Amino acid sequence: MKRSVRRDYYAVLGITATAVPRDIRRAYQRLARQYSPDVNFWDAEARSLFDEIAEAYRVLSDPTARAMYDRFGPQIGTSALQPGRRGDDVHVAVELAFADAARGVTTTLQVARYSPCGPCGASGTGGGEPCRLCQGRGVRRALDAVAAAIPAGVDSGVQIRVAGEGSAGPYGGPRGDLIISTRVREHPFFKRQGEGVHCEVPISVWEALRGARVRVPTPLGEAMLVIPAGARAGQIFRLRGHGLPRLSDEGVGDLFVTVRVELPNGLDARTDELVRELERLLPVAPRRGLEQYAGGGA
Ligand SMILES: [Zn+2]
């Protein structure tokens, strides 16, 4: 069935142009029951009326479509009843504790963005005039709480794009994206360098001499570091898979542990005697060959 003239949708639903969404819905429900094809299956006129009612409701219950209808009148084709343009992307910075960056966290961000204007239903019009609250744009600036999932392993300077959480477009246009820039606070023990994490672990001179198994903290828990006998101060041990989660492949990076050798605090008569004995049994000549450099020679 082809309708040569599109009827006034407000008239079809028997409501005024200032009807609020609840009135529109009630009018539609009442008429839909009355002209339902289930009830009036054989009545062609009722079926055509039902189609008209459904079409009127489809347009008037959609704030964007209604705004377009109000603006351009009943002659407009439905193809022109498109939502407004996409809203802008919104940038927001977030500062994270090292542990949250390591494990990932869901955080609530206060995002200053444009959101649909509630009182005018994003149409930009109210009571036949431009909406005063949004100056007819259908969107208003708002500070919204937005939950965002920060993936495990983010570093400072990472940008996370959350689709559809930016500013709303005018007249019901879709939202742009939310782009979160991260900054991870320094940690007193762990230092991040690219994909690796570095830390310094003190060991006793006896552990260095004899070797030891030492529990060391890692960004995600703890690990056992096996120190071989004769470890040197400043030696770096690599604990594979004990660093931070990688964003690239869901693997876990490495932890690099630099050992610092701690000496006992002073000697008494007895320990002094024992160390002298040890020195005699385990002679060390740490500066052998240095003489050749005296005076800058080589
Ligand atoms: Zn408004």
Give a verbal description of the structure:
Helix 2 (21-35) runs antiparallel to helix 3 (44-60). The chain folds into 3 domains: 9-61, Helix Hairpins, CATH 1.10.287.110; 90-184, Urease metallochaperone UreE, N-terminal domain (HSP40/DNAj peptide-binding domain), CATH 2.60.260.20; 191-283, HSP40/DNAj peptide-binding domain (Sandwich), CATH 2.60.260.20. It is built from 7 helices and 13 strands. The longest helix is centred in the N-terminal third of the chain and has 17 residues, at 44-60. The strands form 5 sheets. It has a 4-stranded mixed β-sheet with strand order 8-9-13-12. A 3-stranded mixed β-sheet has the order 1-7-6. A two-stranded antiparallel ribbon has the order 2-5. A hairpin with a 2-residue loop joins strand 8 (191-193) and strand 9. The protein has 298 residues and is an alpha+beta fold. Zinc ion binds next to loops.
